[in-house]
Design goal:
Layout (H helix, E strand, L loop, with lengths): L2 H32 L3 E5 L2 E5 L3 H8 L4 E8 L7 H16 L3 E8 L4 E6 L2 E6 L5 E5 L4 E5 L4 E6 L1 H6 L1 H11 L2
Parallel strand pairs: 2-8, 3-4, 3-7, 7-9
Antiparallel strand pairs: 1-2, 4-5, 5-6, 8-9
Helix pairs in contact: 3-5
Length: about 170
């Protein structure tokens, strides 16, 4: 066999191996997304995730600058429990050396009120790493499609579980 034939044979094999790896990777990610969410209990908080919870939190919060969004149903929405949850989440992030930018979002609006380093601006919302909202879940949900940690609960849950959610975030960032 001459050198040219060997190179052509090896090139064909390399293309076949790369194609097989791409197909395998695509199938893996497809099946990961189609898996049902698993319910985990971490520090007395229900956490929904399609994968390992601690690794997911660490991955979703891997950036140095972490946008945290508080979603309001309307401009006159009740804030105390959301502010309490937000404060605990900021504490968890700051204690891990993260820079937090806070976004206040009224559902239905295209803009967020953002506060970072004593500057308040109105701008298009960034994709939050953590979103806090009123909802019926009473849980922390790791959304694998948006890579967002959603903290969703009724007012009582947001107030009573804020410290536990902080501990979940700190545990995830270890």
């Amino acid at each position: 066999m001459d050198l040219k034939a060997i190179v052509e044979a090896n090139s064909a094999n390399i293309v076949i191996v790369i194609a097989a790896l791409l197909i395998f990777a695509g199938a893996y990610f497809y099946f990961q997304q189609s898996l049902p969410e698993r319910e985990n209990i971490v520090n007395d908080v229900r956490v929904l995730s399609r994968g390992p919870v601690q690794a997911g939190i660490k991955d979703y919060l891997s950036a140095q600058a972490v946008p945290l969004q508080v979603a309001l149903d309307n401009a006159s929405d009740n804030l105390p429990c959301k502010v309490f949850m937000q404060t605990e989440a900021i504490f968890a992030l700051a204690s891990s050396g993260k820079n937090v930018s806070l976004q206040l979002y009224v559902k239905g609006d295209a803009l967020c009120q953002s506060k970072q380093s004593n500057q308040t601006t109105m701008a298009p919302c960034q994709k939050p790493a953590i979103a806090i909202e009123t909802g019926s879940c009473n849980c922390v949900k790791l959304d694998s499609q948006t890579k967002t940690i959603l903290v969703s609960g009724d007012e009582q849950w947001l107030c009573s579980q804020a410290a536990n959610v902080r501990k979940v975030l700190q545990w995830g960032l270890q």
